[in-house]
Amino acid sequence: MVPRVLALKNSADLLKEFKRIGVDGGGMKIMRPKAFLRIVKVSHLPGFCANILKQEMLSLGGDAALSRGSITGTDRHTDCLLLGTFSQYASLSSKLKKQPFGLSELGQEVRLCLARSADRRVPLHLGRRHLRLGRRTLVMGILNATTDSSSGDGMLGASPQRALSLARSMAEEGADIIDIGGESSRPGSRPVSAKEELKRVLPFVKLFAKSLRVALSIDTTKSEVAHAALDCGVGIVNDISALRGDKKMARLVARYGAAVVLMHMKGTPRTMQESPHYDDLMGEITGFLDDSIKKALDSGIRQDKIIIDPGIGFGKTLSHNIEIIERLSELRMFGRPILVGVSRKWFIGRILNAGVSGRLWGTAAAVCAAISGGADIVRVHDVRQIKQVVRVADAIHKRCS
């Protein structure tokens, strides 16, 4: 009779333990939602609503953390941390149906948020290609048609055939997507014109579309560049401005039925690393992405075409980047694929005191951590090496083989 604490990560792990013991099927169904505590944050609630939530959670065996002032009546509004299991949240949602003040709708939103966080089997439709994420992590290979890439891999001036050879190698090494960019987004970089960007990327895009079977992505904030790439058959627009840089971009993506990557960035590439500050890092990122998703949907982009990216290195300090990776699973609340780009980033160089050429294994470690947190797509330069890292990380964290 030796007790031990089990390191179970999810309900699938719990189910295996139930089966080892021989738990009745009905009992499994009842107990699974009770097993894992989930903490849900609700921001800027009226104090009286927060107190109602606390009383309801206490009655269910859960709890809620409020500001001291909201309890004494001195704070009109408060952030609220709900602490409960899936089972308790389901009961809370039912109880709140009869409550006024928007609490009924809040209960449904909490339940939906938790359901999205738990379901990793999200579809991604790319024209004729249909990718189902959650079973394994996809690899996006980077091809920069620039001279000033922070990773030292710019292909500007290279012949289309040389670029095709590199892209073909990426595909053979296991890239699921190849992302083509013609404008550097390194800290301090200056924008280039749409004409110059098209001159850089369009020969590559045309050749890749004809010669490769992998999905293609165009890394641009300009609708003119995206339009030309989409005409060639590119299926993803990777927009680091999250549709804010060009007013025509959202409608364009919707018209073509393309997928879009919405990335968080504080400032612009030229200014983003000038002492970035956050009062609530993950709160600001999720709020930004929530607004961006709503903008995309309002513009006619379908839900199953949206990918989100927390923007590692884009207006973030070393500690910010680490915190994002640690708390990446919080972005699962949106129920959309999460793309993470850590490859050769400066924060890895800062940790290792290494130049760009010495950041491969630091990148590998960051990729593993991102996959553990729920990344669905990793954007990398070294496809062959990172593909091996991804396969092992998936075998551990997603139970793939």
TrEMBL record:
Keyword flag Iron: no
Gene3D superfamilies per record: Dihydropteroate synthase-like
Keyword annotations of the record: Folate biosynthesis, Magnesium, Metal-binding, Transferase
Cofactor: Mg(2+)
Signal peptide: none
Reaction equation(s) it catalyzes: (7,8-dihydropterin-6-yl)methyl diphosphate + 4-aminobenzoate = 7,8-dihydropteroate + diphosphate
Domain of life of the native organism: Bacteria
Example GO BP: folic acid biosynthetic process
Enzyme's top EC category: transferase
Listed GO CC annotations: cytosol
GO MF annotation terms: dihydropteroate synthase activity; metal ion binding
The protein's annotated pathway: Cofactor biosynthesis; tetrahydrofolate biosynthesis; 7,8-dihydrofolate from 2-amino-4-hydroxy-6-hydroxymethyl-7,8-dihydropteridine diphosphate and 4-aminobenzoate: step 1/2
EC number(s) from the headed UniProt entry: 2.5.1.15
Keyword Phosphoprotein: no
Domain Pterin-binding: 137-391
Family from the record: Belongs to the DHPS family.
Protein name listed in UniProt: Dihydropteroate synthase
